[in-house]
Design brief:
three-stranded parallel sheet
Amino acid sequence: RVFGPQLVVLRVASSVWRQTVGRFASVSFVALIDVSEPTENLVWEIEELMVRARKTCVFIAQHDRALEIAAGSGARTFDGHVASLLELDEILAYTTDRRGRRRFARALRGKLLSLTTRE
């Protein structure tokens, strides 16, 4: 039984990462996905969570990268693909300065609260 919100960040062996994503998807209310570094693996995770598991996802990215991804500029190999997957979703952008971290924390808290009131 979960008594409060929890955030879990894992680093797993390459041989079991897909199974790990699937297992966490089965017990998670929402997936928080950082799309700052789009890769083939990230594309698979987004498709797995959004399409196959039908999980609610909140996407975050470093501010400059969020702008590049949203523009679909193709500056990096999977930017365009990730942009098309997230076409109808917002990306919460963060910066690493103190003010930016506070602003991001408020935005993330508000987003998560809005999701819990819809369920």
